[in-house]
Design a protein that fits this description.
heterodimer, A: 139 residues, alpha/beta, Rossmann fold, 4 helices, 40% helix, globular, B: 318 residues, 6-stranded parallel β-sheet, two-stranded antiparallel ribbon, 10 helices
């Protein structure tokens, strides 16, 4: 069977997850390779979550949060971007392709943007190929 | 009842953990009286590998293993120790998480040998002689050396019953662990022997302990830049101290003399990957996201003692 990417999307329940919902209501299509995990806030996303997903063979990890100023908990997304940037630097230094991990702000009204972002992410990962960690990571 | 039997092995370590055990001083006299040391290589007892191998399986009550697993000899003795010991304890940060020496996993063995035997300034090796795993002297004496491998933690090779962090573990911590061991008051198998508090919780610079709130770091400084205010939290001043995620069994020795914690104590309970939790903690204490780019060399900072035990365990492209 041909390789199909497996993408993990960790979505904040107040914005990106609502955006995904809206994309569905508006019948925008996006690739079926996307697997969404709902979290209370992008500030809840530990670097360990991203690492775990990559280690277990996810080909890409996408984190969706609220635009600055919109966070339901005021500063969760500010924490998210600091953690994400630092994790990305660390992971890149260790040889993980930086394109496999992405962070974007998508609000609840941006259903169309959500569908576009998923389509773009899927295309990017297809170009990159399978995650080399699949089956080969240190347990 | 006969005395409990103890075995101690130093693998890919520096002997610092042996020193920490010896440093329990007066308590060691009682401990040594209470224990029968059947194997302690290579530093204390003169017992050979073949003597250890000849002992029956499960005949030793407690085995202490310090240092990481770096070559074929370490791997072999780790398996022998597991077979002979009822309780096997990973002692020190090398055995538990890889230690500072597991940073070798950022390079290949060939790159490391090339540096050590060819490229270093003081090396004179025109014939490019490298150590070999086998060599025959005078056509009759065969000499062997263990084969180098990537550094691994002890639990990546055999099952481990208890973990003790520290580089080396503070001798008071070792004394407590040994006392708990002798009195049978041990936590469930598979746990770390620790009081469970972070360095920050025992640090007298922590503003939270005096009722104040913690401020964000407004800059990122390295230890040689400026002089830290001895009254203030190092993190608030921009010195990246890893105290929030490190076990405080050391009693916060480094921050008390204005040296930021580098995480030798190992992760606080519940943390799988020390470096990633440290990334999370430190990043959320920075004032703005631009400061993230000012942190020099995150791998060596956050994985200084725990690279082998991390989610990747090594650099992927070397």
């Amino acid at each position: 069977m041909a390789w199909e990417p497996r993408l993990i999307v960790i979505a904040c329940q107040w914005c990106t997850y609502q955006g995904a919902d809206l994309a569905g209501s508006l019948r925008y299509s996006y690739p079926p390779t996307v697997h969404i995990i709902r979290v209370p806030c992008s500030g809840r996303v530990e670097p360990e979550f991203i690492a775990e997903a990559l280690k277990k063979g996810a080909d890409g990890v996408f984190i969706g949060g609220c635009h600055f100023g919109d966070c339901h908990y005021k500063e969760g997304n500010y924490k998210a971007i600091r953690r994400f940037k630092l994790f990305k630097r660390l992971a890149t230094d260790l040889g993980v392709e930086p394109e496999r991990i992405q962070l974007e702000w998508i609000s609840g009204s941006e259903g169309k943007r959500f569908a576009e972002a998923m389509t773009e992410f899927d295309a990017k990962i297809r170009e990159l190929g399978p995650n080399p960690l699949k089956g080969g990571a240190n347990v | 009842m006969s005395k409990p039997k103890l075995a101690y092995y130093l693998a890919g370590g520096c002997g610092g953990c042996d020193m920490a055990v010896v440093d329990i001083s007066e308590a060691l006299v009682d401990v040594a009286m209470a224990l029968d040391i059947v194997f302690w290589a290579p530093t204390v007892a003169d017992v050979k590998y073949k003597d250890l191998e000849a002992m029956p399986s499960g005949s030793i009550d407690v085995g202490l293993f310090s240092g990481n697993v770096r070559n074929s000899e370490h791997e072999h003795i780790a398996k022998v120790m597991r077979d002979k010991c009822k309780i096997l304890i990973a002692l020190g940060i090398c055995a538990t998480s890889g230690g500072i020496k597991s940073l070798v996993n950022l390079h290949t063995t060939e790159q490391l040998l090339e540096t050590a035997y060819i490229n270093t300034y003081s090396t004179d090796n025109p014939d490019k002689v490298f150590p070999q795993t086998q060599y025959v002297v005078d056509n009759k004496y065969e000499l062997t050396l263990p084969k180098l491998m990537d550094a691994r933690t002890l639990d990546q090779v055999v099952k481990v019953d208890y973990y003790i962090g520290g580089c080396p573990p503070h001798h008071e911590h070792v004394a407590k662990a040994v006392t708990a061991l002798l009195s049978g008051q041990l936590p469930p198998p598979g746990s770390w022997i620790t009081m469970g508090k972070a360095v920050c919780e025992v640090c007298d610079k922590n503003p939270v302990l005096t009722g104040k709130s913690k401020e964000f770091a407004k800059s990122v400084k390295r230890i040689y830049e400026g002089t830290p205010d001895p009254e203030k939290c190092l993190l608030e001043q921009g010195y990246l101290c890893l105290g929030p995620v490190t076990q405080g069994d050391c009693g916060s020795k480094c921050p008390s003399v204005d040296i930021p914690c580098r995480g030798c104590g190992g992760p606080i309970p519940g943390v799988k990957d020390y470096g990633l939790r440290a990334v999370s903690a430190i990043a959320s204490m920075l004032d703005n996201e631009e400061l993230v780019d000012q942190i020099p060399d995150p791998v060596h900072l956050f994985y200084r003692y725990t690279l082998a035990g991390s989610f990747l365990g090594k650099r992927l492209k070397r």
